[in-house]
Amino acid sequence: MNTTNNSIGIVTVKTAQICTAEDPLLLDSGEQLGPIDIAYETYGTLNADKSNVILINHALTGDAHAAGYYSDTDEKPGWWDTMIGPGKAFDTNKYYLICSNVIGGCKGSTGPMSINPKTSKPWGLTFPIVTIRDMVHAQKKLLDHLGITRLLAVAGGSMGGMQVLQWAVSYPETVRLIIAIATTSTLSTQNIAFNLVGRQAIFTDPNFKNGEYYNNAIPEHGLAVARMIGHITYLSEKGMRDKFGRRLQTAQDYTFNFGQEFEIESYLQYQGKRFSERFDANSYFYVTKAMDYFDLAHETGSLETTFAQVKSNALIISFTSDWLFSPEQSKDIVRALIYNKIPVSYCNIYSPYGHDAFLLEAEQISRLISGALYNTFRDIPNQEAD
Amino acid sequence: MNTTNNSIGIVTVKTAQICTAEDPLLLDSGEQLGPIDIAYETYGTLNADKSNVILINHALTGDAHAAGYYSDTDEKPGWWDTMIGPGKAFDTNKYYLICSNVIGGCKGSTGPMSINPKTSKPWGLTFPIVTIRDMVHAQKKLLDHLGITRLLAVAGGSMGGMQVLQWAVSYPETVRLIIAIATTSTLSTQNIAFNLVGRQAIFTDPNFKNGEYYNNAIPEHGLAVARMIGHITYLSEKGMRDKFGRRLQTAQDYTFNFGQEFEIESYLQYQGKRFSERFDANSYFYVTKAMDYFDLAHETGSLETTFAQVKSNALIISFTSDWLFSPEQSKDIVRALIYNKIPVSYCNIYSPYGHDAFLLEAEQISRLISGALYNTFRDIPNQEAD
Q: CA of A44 to nearest chain B CA: how many angstroms apart?
C-alpha cells in the first residue's frame, strides 16, 4: 500500500440485493433478471441533504474498486485512485462517491458466474443479454436502495462514459452533471469488429466449452488473446512505438524462432495472461456485447432527438491519440448536446497514450473535473441544500 | 471467367527447382534450405534482349496467380488482374511479367506444408524461419534459372512492397525501377503486435497441435480469427462505417444473442472462414514472422545508409486512409531515397479503402505505374537494347 499520494486508505466492497426473484429487473431483451446483487464501494461522506453524491462508472474490465486498498499488503489501489481521494479531482473531503460493478460483470455483481437459481448452476452463456441501459437501470435501483434520489454527477471513461450518457437520457431529473470521458454515443463498425474478434478468440479456446468451464480449466489462452487485441486498441500507434519500438526482449539479435522476441510481444502476452487470471471469459462476452448494442440513436433515429430529454450539464473529454473512441466520436456527442442547448464543456486533450489516457492523464483530467464539480455543487439552490 | 475487361485469359502455374539438397539456400537465420521449389506464373512475351521483364511480388496471403484464370469455369481471376493484361498498367503487350509464390508460403513454393526430405514428413513448425531477404534471394535464383539478368521493374504492395525495397538493396544492379505500394521499410510496433495476436489466435485452436495437423482437422477457427484481425487492419474505420455501419444482418432489430447479428460480424466471419479454407496456418506463422523481422535499418542503423547502395529509380505509392502501413511510413522511405539522390516519384492517393486500396484503387495506381514503366523502358540505352 502506498498512501503518500493522498490515498483514501483501506476500503471495503459491499453488496446490495437490488432485485429479488419475485421483483426482477425487466431487461431490454424482454427477459427478467432476479435476484440481482450489486457490488459497490463508497468513498467520502454523504452530506446531510444528500446533495454531494457522485456515481463513478467503470470500463469494460474494471470493477467497483475505483480507489483505495483492500489491505495493507495490496500493491495496487483501485483503478481510478489517481482521481479519487482527499484533495483530488473527486475530492472525498467534499463529495460522496459510489462505484458499482456492472451487471453481467464478474466482480461481485450478478453475472454469468452467478448461480442461476432455477438450475443451481452458474448461468454461463444462459445468462440473459444485458445492455448499457440495463446496467444503468440496475445502478438506479442501487441508489434507491441507498436512499439517494439525486446525483451531483455521474462520471466515467470508455464504457463507463456510455453509462454516463445513458444516465443523462434515462434519468434526466436525477443527474446534475455528466462527465463522459473517452467514450462514444454509439459503437462504431470497427469497435463492433474488434469486440467480435475478441469473443471469437475466446470461442476458439477448447477450454471455453461454450461457456461451461466453471468446474474445469478456464479458457485462459483465448481470453488472453482477446485482451491482447483489446490492449492494442487502447494504445496509440505512436505511444506503442515510443514505449517499445522494435526492441528485443532479451537476445542481442534476432533469434529466428516463434518465442517472445520483441518487447511488445512479451508485454502483450504478459498483459493477456494477467488479465485471464482476473477476469471471467463469459463476462467478456456479455460486457462487450452490451457495448455493441450501445447506440443512443437506435430508437429515436438521431442523437439530437435522444438528447432532447437531457437536463444535466455536461463535461465531455476526449484524447487526441484515442483511436478506439476517437475525438470525432466525442464531438458527435458535443454537437448533439449543443443542438439541445445543454451547457457543455468539451476538451480534446493532447495525449500520446491513446484510449488509456483516461486512466493515465489524471492531472489534465483532474483540472477539468474539479472545476466542473465545483461549479455544479456551488449552483445547487438553497432550497435543495436544506 | 469474365474476359470482357482485357483479361489475359487462361494461365498456368509453373514450378522450378531453384535449389537442391546439395546446393541449398543459405538463409538469414544461418540455416540452409534445399531443395526449394518456386511456383510462378508468367504473362506477356519476353522480348529479344530480355529488357522487358517485370517481377510482381504478392502480399501476405497472395500467391503466384496474379492475373488471368486457371480455367473457363474460374469465377475469379488472379489477385492483381485489374493491373495486369493487354493495355493495362502492366501491359502484357509490351512487358513480360513474372509472379512467384514466396518461400514459406503454401501455394506451390517450398514452405511448412512441404515434405522435409530428412524426415519424409511435412516440415510444420520445424521449417526454418525465412525473412523477406530470403524470399528475395530465392526469387533471384528463379530469375537465374530463367536466364534473366536484369529487371525493368519490381513491383508489389504491402509485403510485396517490402520485397520490392529489399530487391533494390540486395540487387541494385539488377533492378531499373522499384514500384513499392502501401508498404513500409520496417514493421512498426503495432504491426508486430497485430501479427503476434494473429499467431496466438491460431495457437489457441486445439487443432493446431503446434503445427502438426496435416493429417488431421486443420485449425480453421484460429486461422479465421487471425484473418479477421488482419481484415480489420486492411480496412479504414471510415471505409468500414460507410460499407457496413451498424446494419443488422437479417433481423429487424437486436436479437439479444451472440449469433452473427451485425453485417460486419457476418462479413468478417465469412472472410475468416473462406480464408481458412485456402491458406495454411503454419504458413501464416512463417510469413507474418518474416514481416516482423523486416527492418531495412536493422543492420546499418539507418534507412539512409541502407539505401546508399540503391541504383533503381523509385515509384512509391501510399493511401491516405491506410493505417496498417501508413503514408508516414511511405514518406520515411521517400525521404531516405531522396537523401541518396535516388530519382523518386511519390504519390499519397486519396482513398477511403485503407490498406486494401492497393488492390482496389487500380485506376489511380495504373496511371502512375504505366507512366513510370514507359519512361523507364524508353530510357534503356541502345547498347542494352541490342
A: 38
Residue intervals of chain B classified under CATH 1.10.1740.110 are 192-288
Q: Does A126 touch chain B (CB under 8 A)?
A: no
Residues in A 48-107 with any Cβ partner in B closer than 8 A: none
User: CA B218 to CA B281: how far, in whole Å?
Assistant: 8
Cα(B264)–Cα(B245) distance, integer angstroms: 8
Annotation: CATH topology of B14-186+295-385 = Rossmann fold (3.40.50)
| Domain range A192-288, CATH class | mainly alpha
| Active-site residue, A158 included | yes
- CB-based contact B37:B17 (threshold 8 Å): yes
CB contact under 8 A, B228 and A264: no
Contact between residue B152 and residue B176 where contact means Cβ atoms under 8 Å apart: yes
Please choose, from the candidates B178, B175, B174, the residue with its C-alpha nearest in 3D space to the C-alpha of residue B165.
Answer: B178
Return per-residue pLDDT of chain A as tens, 386 residues: 766 668 899 999 999 999 999 999 999 999 999 999 999 999 999 999 999 999 999 999 999 999 999 999 999 999 999 999 999 999 999 999 999 999 999 999 999 999 999 999 999 999 999 999 999 999 999 999 999 999 999 999 999 999 999 999 999 999 999 999 999 999 999 999 999 999 999 999 999 999 999 999 999 999 999 999 999 999 999 999 999 999 999 888 999 999 999 999 999 999 999 999 999 999 999 999 999 999 999 999 999 999 999 999 999 999 999 999 999 999 999 999 999 999 999 999 999 999 999 999 999 999 999 999 999 999 998 645 44
In angstroms, what separates the C-alpha of B205 from chain A's closest C-alpha?
6
